[in-house]
Amino acid sequence: MDPSGAVYVDFDAATGDGRAVRGWIERHKAAYPDGDVGRLVVLEPEGDTYGLGEEELAELERVVKEAGAGLVIVDSFMAAFPLDVVKAHQVQAAFYHLRRLALTTGSAVVVIDHLPKPMSGEQAGARGLLGSIAKTAQARSVHILTRVPPKEVEGRHVLRWDVLKNSFAPVPEPFGVELVFEPGLVRVVEAALPEGSVNPRKAKAQAVVLTLLQGGGVVPRKDLVEAIIREANVHRKTAERYLAEIAQEAGLVVATIPGKGNPVAYRLPEATPLPGEVGPSQSATLSAPATPKSENPDAHRERFRSTPLLLNGEGAPKSPSTSTRRGLFRGVVSLRDTADTGREVQDRETGEEGELL
Q1: CA 150, 22, 68, 11 torsion: positive or negative?
Q2: N or C end of the chain: which has fewer CB within 10 A?
Q3: Is 0.90 topped by the overall pTM?
Q4: Share in percent of the chain as helix, strand, coil (round to 5)
Q5: Residue in 94, 113, 89 with CA at minimum distance from that of residue 164
């Protein structure tokens, strides 16, 4: 496969000046000098941008085509699309435009999303993605990364990588990756997960339970047990044990539903309680707009910019994709490779060395 460029749309920049993204890129480049950062274009919204609208997405499509990018990364879904993530029709609308971007440009579109905040005693990532099941349904592949407790890996920074869904290949067993920090660089290497932390059958059981419960549904216990038996290929007693463990780890809420014998059902903590049900003491934060709401949300919409901090060195050339239209991707630039010059990446305005904030 021929190498191609990448476009990183950074809506999650806390400082709004690209320092965090640049710091990661430069440290990764120091560890893997054969990489070509000149193929990477980083875009950021203006400070008061209210999400990605149709006009912004059209401009993004143009930039991706001009850059010849084979990869587009949107960070993150919640910041780029400030909507109610538990409502399927709103999530589907956002994914329609992301799917169209992939089809018209031929690029792979990767969306970084958030996980629900763990409830008391809950295992991180146990409930899957934050919000509607439409996210999982619309995506071709869903990967979940959670940090392994440092005490289980001798204080190292190890991430557990679970594949919740993959439409193009078999779902692999969970595996580990480690971030190895050294002065001025960071390496990403494969790492073994703690002994006993990987159970492929239980992982399949968890995936099917979360898939059935996402979107706020209340699912009878017997249906969840049958789904586990079918997907994980285990006996009923094992399926019941898996469900009990998953319910505890994910903080699932037990409810009774109408029917003979008052059958037991489960729902996610953030799902709407059934009539007359006493809700849990805690609830996850489901959504937060990128900027405060106003009577006219469109008034908040600015356009993308790429700040001078993303330029490697004084007077670095701008990308040919720079727009002359005011406010539309002003100063779009690509990160340039400075390995041959040996110069440190510097802030054009302050002269400070690039650092990870």
Answers
A1: positive
A2: N
A3: no
A4: 30, 20, 50
A5: 113
